[in-house]
Structures are given as C-alpha cells and as structure tokens.
Amino acid sequence: MTSNHLNATFAALADPTRRAILARLASGEASVMELAAPFAMSQPAISKHLKVLQGAGLISRGRDAQRRPCRLEAQPLAEATGWLVKYRELWEGNFQRLDALLDELKAGPKKPASTKR
Amino acid sequence: MANARTLQVTTPTDREIMITRSFDAPRRLVFDAWTKPELIKRWLVGPEGWTMPVCEIDLRVGGAYRFVWRKTDGAEMGMRGVYREIVAPERIVGTELFDMDWTGGETVSTIVLAEQGGKTTLTQTVLYSSKEARDGALRSNMTEGMESSYARLDAVLVTARDTKGAA
C-alpha cells in the first residue's frame, strides 16, 4: 500500500457516479454503452469517469476493440478499506491503552526513583 | 459509560476535524499521559507489532517534539512538530507534520482537557492547510459521519469479492 495509490483510490471514489459504476460492475463486466444506460449522461461523459477509475486501478478494460468491456478490480478497494480498518483500530487501541494507563496512575502514583534508597 | 468513551468525530469548519473522547481520570493525569515521553510511549504506539522507540519532547512554547514508530519488520513512521501554547493541565497547541506528509502539509492540533466530577473530556481539533487537505484526511478516516457512504462501499466490496471468487 502506498499513499499515492490510496489518494487515487479515494479521489476516484469521491464521485457518486463512479461509485454507481463500480456497484454496477460488481455484478459483472459491462460495456460503456451498458454503463451509460442508467445515467442521464453521454457516453463520452461516462468514458471520462471510466478513465479516472482505470487510472486508480479500480477497473480494467477488455481488449475487444468494439466492446472493450469494463471489469471491476477489487484489490485497490480492499487495500483502501483495509487501511481504514487499520486506522480505526489504531486509535481505538491507543485510547484503550490510555484508559488502562490512567487507571494505573489513579490507583496510586508510583513514586519514581527518588523515593528509593 | 461505554457510550461516553466512544470516539466522536465532527467537522466544526471547512478546514477542521474535531475528535472528542472521555476518560475516567482527572485531567492532570490525562495531561501527563499526553506530555511525558515515558507515559506516551506506553499508549501512543499504534497497532500490534509497533513500538515507539523515539519520543522526544521539549515541553515549552517554541519547543519541538519528535515521534518515531517502528514495526517489527523494520518499517518506520515519524512525525514532528513545535508547541505553540501550553497551559497545564488544560490546553496544548502544536504543529504536526508526518514524515510522509499524508495530511497535505502541516496541521495545527489543539487539545483541550475539561474536567468534571473526576472525569476528563478530551477535545482535539486538527486544523488543515486547506479544505482539500482536510477532506483528503477525512476520507481516509473511518468516522461515524462517513459510516453510511462506507457502508455502501462495504457492500460493493463484498459483492466484488463474491463475484471475483465465483469467476
């Protein structure tokens, strides 16, 4: 996972049309025409969105010159959410450790070396 | 009580993220835990497998701090900053900059500790260099406010995995 990858992934996901395209592709590959059908958008407009998704590695295009079907690539999404889950765990873990530390400090401040002889 | 301890995340302005969390301890102890290296190293260590080998703090206005975390495989992550305001035990303001700069430039963190009945409410406000920088960081933070859009994303992912697996 690199931060650039994540930036591209999150930027691509920031747009509702692109998320809808991904949701559609989750149920199987589709051509640009098929993808454009449910949206009030021209094929060139959809193609622009597809380029962003392709640039982020979220989809790939088939080689068939006529149809060039789009396919969902799940790996970058899995990396993105994996990282999010880790971020949340990090802070939850940190604060739970802080809770435990505060309990210990409250229970009785351990006198530092100065009290030892 | 469990609810009071839940991490709350809000966006008071275009450039800020505010985090609130309660602790069952007087603020003097919470302040110590945020400012004394030997205490910080015991909790601000991140996920399993990470330690905090470097935690240097010059706790005065204009004083610098330096944190470095290290994973068992040798990976390192560092951040540094300078203190701008210190009012013990209630307020700490300082700059923050990660070595990898994933926050779109330096941020300014303000920590306020409010004590009531022996419990402390911590409010940390992070001010980003721009709305874009803030939104970038917010997108990469799993927060309650983002829960619905990420729930949608989760659904996409689950379907994507199933589709992949079946193909």
Task: Name the helicity range of chain B.
Answer: 25-40%
Radius of gyration of chain B: 18 Å
SS content category of chain A: mainly alpha
Poorly predicted sequence stretches spanning 5 or more consecutive residues of chain B = 141-161, 163-167
List low-confidence stretches of chain A. Answer: none
Strand order of the largest sheet of chain B: 1-2-8-7-6-5-4-3
CATH superfamily membership of chain A: Winged helix-like DNA-binding domain superfamily/Winged helix DNA-binding domain
CATH class of chain B equals: Alpha Beta
Query: Could you tell me the radius of gyration of chain A in angstroms?
Result: 24 Å
Strand order of the largest sheet of chain A: 1-2
CATH-assigned homologous superfamily of chain B: START domain
Question: What is the total domain count of chain B?
Answer: 1
Tell me the number of structural domains of chain A: 1
Count the DSSP helices of chain A. Answer: 5
Q: What's the architecture of chain A, going by CATH?
A: Orthogonal Bundle
From the 3D structure, determine the CATH topology of chain A.
Arc Repressor Mutant, subunit A
Biggest protein-protein interface?
A-B, 39 and 38 residues
Mean pLDDT of chain B, nearest integer? 79
The name of the CATH architecture of chain B is 2-Layer Sandwich
Tally the beta strands of chain A.
2
Mean pLDDT over the residues of chain A:
79
